[in-house]
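dude i think i finally got it to work??
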Amino acid sequence: MIAQLRGNILRTDDQQSILDVHGVGYAVNISGRTQGQLGAMAGEVTLLTEMQVREDSMTLFGFLDLGERDAFRLLITVQGVGAKAAMAILSVLSPSDLTNAIIAGDKAMVARADGVGPKIAQRAVNELGEKIGKITSLGGREGEDVFARMGDAVKARGFSVGDGGEVDVEEVFGETSDELDELVGVDLAGVVADDLQLAEREGVLH
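look at this
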C-alpha cells in the first residue's frame, strides 16, 4: 500500500499528475482543486495517497491535505459513489464546504459535481450525516458528531434545551451565532441559512 509520495511534478493535466520520485514516475489522479493548487507550487511536493487495486489495474489518488483524503475515503463508502464521483465532488467542494453541505442536508451543493445526479447527492447527504462529524480532519471530534456538539454548545451558552435535546432556533441563531460557530467548530450561520431540515430531523433543532 502506498500511503504517501514525495517528489517533483513532471506534468499535470486532466486531473492527473506525474510525480517523479527518485527517477520513478507515478501517475496520480487528483481533484480539480488539487490540480489548481499544484500549479502554483514549485520544487518537491508531498501527496497523501489512496491506492485502489483491481484485477486489471492499480490506481493512485493523491491529496495535498488530510481533510481531502479523509473526505475521499468517506465519500466512497456511499453506495453508488465510486472514486471518480468522489474526486468530482472534491473538485467543486473543499472538505469544509462538503462538511457544511452534509450537515445542512444540501444535496444541491453535492450535485454540482460532474456525473453526480440528485439521487446520488441525496444518498450521500443521508448516509454521511452522522459520520462526517466524527472525523477530526473534517471539523469533527473523535467519538462525537456535529449535532451533539451543536446541542452542547447552545447549552453552554445558557439557552434552554428540551428533554429530547430540542433548541429554539430563533432564540439561538441571533446575535450569538458567531460565538456558537467558534464553540462548535463549523459555520453554523451558514449551515442554517442553507438548510435546517437535516438538523431538525436529527432532533437537535426544533
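The chain is about 40% helix and 20% strand.
im so relieved honestly
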